[in-house]
Amino acid sequence: MSVTLSAPEMKAEAGVAEAFEALSRTFEAFKETNDTRLGEMERRMAADPITEDKLIRLDAAVDAALGKVEALSLKARRPQLGGDAQELPVNREHKAAFEAYMRGGDAGGLRRLETKTLAGALGPDGGYLVPMTAEREILRRMAASSPIRGIASVRQISTSSFRKAFAETGPAAGWTGAGVNSTPPQQLSDLSFGTFELFAQPAATQTLLDDATVDVERWIAEEAEVAFAEKESAAFVNGNGTSAPQGFLTVPQVANASWAWGSLGTVNSGASGAFPATDPGDALTDLVYALKAGYRQNGSFVMNRKTQSVVRKIKDADGRYLWSPPSVAGAPSSLMNFPVVEAEDMPDIAAGSTSIAFGDFRRGYLVLDRMGIRILRDPFSAKPYVLFYTTKRVGGGVQDFDAIKLMKFSA
C-alpha cells in the first residue's frame, strides 16, 4: 500500500535530503584539502598557511552541515502528542483540568483529581501533575535531544531513590550436575542511585494562553525539553552525585591495566594533550579493544565537537579516514564504524584530560526518571508574563564500571 505524504512532509523530507547531500559534498572537500595539507607536510615539513586556513573553514562547514542534518532529523523524529492514553476518560478529564489551570489559573479540577489519587500530598505549593500525554512527550523529546540519555538505560521509578545488587565479577552462571556446585560464590555490590529535582521556568504571555488554537501541552513540552535536556546532559557527564546525578567522568579513574570495580579504566593517547604525531589511530584502536567483546559490539564513542574535529583528520595505515559522516539521514556519524555521540559537556583535549569515552552505555550508565512532572503557575513574579515552574526528579550513575573506558591524553 502506498503512502501519500502531505506537502509539509514532502518539504521536510526534501530538506533533510538536501542537507545530507551538502554534508557529503563538504566532507569530500575537507578530505581533499586535508590530503593536500598532509602532502605539503611530507614534502616541506610544514603546510601552506592558505591550505591550513582552508581546512579550518571546511572543518567548520562540516560541523555546520552536520548540525543542520541532525537538527532536521531530530525534528522529523519527534512524535506528535496523542495516543491511546488520551482517549481514556480519566486522561481526558486530567487534560481538561490541566488546560483550565494553564490558561486561567483554575486549579479546582486538578486539585480534585489529585485528591482522588492521593497525588496531591505536596499541596498547591508543590504544583500539579501534568497529564500523562504531556509527560510522555517531554520524556520522548528528551531522549532524542539529550545525548547520554539517548544511549543509556532509562528506568522509571515511583520513589526518590533506586538500589540494585550487581555482581562485580559478572552474573553467576554455570552447569548443574552431579558433583558440581550449582551456586558458585560471587561478590555482590549494592549500588544506590538518588534522584534530584530538575526545574525549568518557561514564561508565556497571557495573549498566548488565551489563544484557543495554542496546544498548551505541546507548548510546555517544547519549552521544558530544552532546559531539562541541557541541564541533565551536563550532569550525566560531570555531575557530582550530591546535588545532581553522578556523571561518568566524576567516578574514580585508573589506568586500565590496574582497573578494579568502582572505577573507570583509562587508556593513554600516547602524547600529552594530543594524539601522537605518528599513527594517531592506534590510540583509538587501543581504546576500542580495552573494552571486552561483549560490551564492544554495542559500543559508542562520546566526545564534544572540538574533539570530533580532531579525530576527523585521522587516517588508518591504508590512508582511509577513520571518521565518516552519517550514511543515511537520521543516523549518527561514525568512527571506526562505531557511532559517535556528540556531548558538548565532554572536556576539550588538554594535558591529562579524558576527552573521549568509549563503551556500551546501555549497560554502563543508568538514568532514573521519577514518575510525575509537576507545574506551578506563577502570574505574579514577572508581570505581564506568566511563569510555569516545572519540576521533575532525575537520577543517574554508572551501573557497570567495566562497560565504559576513557582515553586520557597523556604520554
How do the helices and strands follow one another from N- to C-terminus?
A: HHHHHEHHEEEEHHEEHHEHEEEEHEEEE
Kindly report how far apart the N and C termini lie.
60 Å
Average pLDDT score: 85
| Secondary structure category | alpha+beta
Please give the number of β-strands: 16
- Give helix % range: 40-55%
Uncertain segments:
1-7, 79-86, 120-124
- The number of helical segments is 13
Topology at a glance:
Elements: H1 7-44, H2 49-77, H3 84-87, H4 89-104, H5 108-116, E1 128-129, H6 132-145, H7 147-151, E2 153-157, E3 161-167, E4 188-200, E5 203-205, H8 206-210, H9 216-238, E6 253-255, E7 264-268, H10 281-289, H11 293-296, E8 300-303, H12 305-311, E9 323-324, E10 333-335, E11 338-342, E12 354-359, H13 361-364, E13 365-370, E14 374-378, E15 385-398, E16 404-408
Parallel strand pairs: 2-13, 6-7, 7-16, 8-11
Antiparallel strand pairs: 1-14, 3-4, 4-15, 5-15, 8-12, 9-10, 10-11, 12-16, 13-15, 14-15
Helix pairs in contact: 1-2, 4-5, 6-9
How would you characterize this protein structure?
The strands form two sheets. Strands 1, 2, 3, 4, 5, 13, 14 and 15 form an eight-stranded mixed beta sheet that branches. The protein has an eight-stranded mixed beta sheet with strand order 6-7-16-12-8-11-10-9. 41% of the residues lie in helices and 21% in strands. Helix 1 (7-44) runs antiparallel to helix 2, helix 4 (89-104) packs antiparallel against helix 5 (108-116) and helix 6 packs across helix 9 (216-238). It is an alpha+beta fold and 411 residues long. The chain starts with 6 loop residues before the first helix and ends with a strand. Residues 1-7, 79-86 and 120-124 have low confidence and may be disordered. The chain has a domain at 7-77. It is globular. A hairpin with a 2-residue loop joins strand 10 and strand 11. It contains 13 helices and 16 strands.
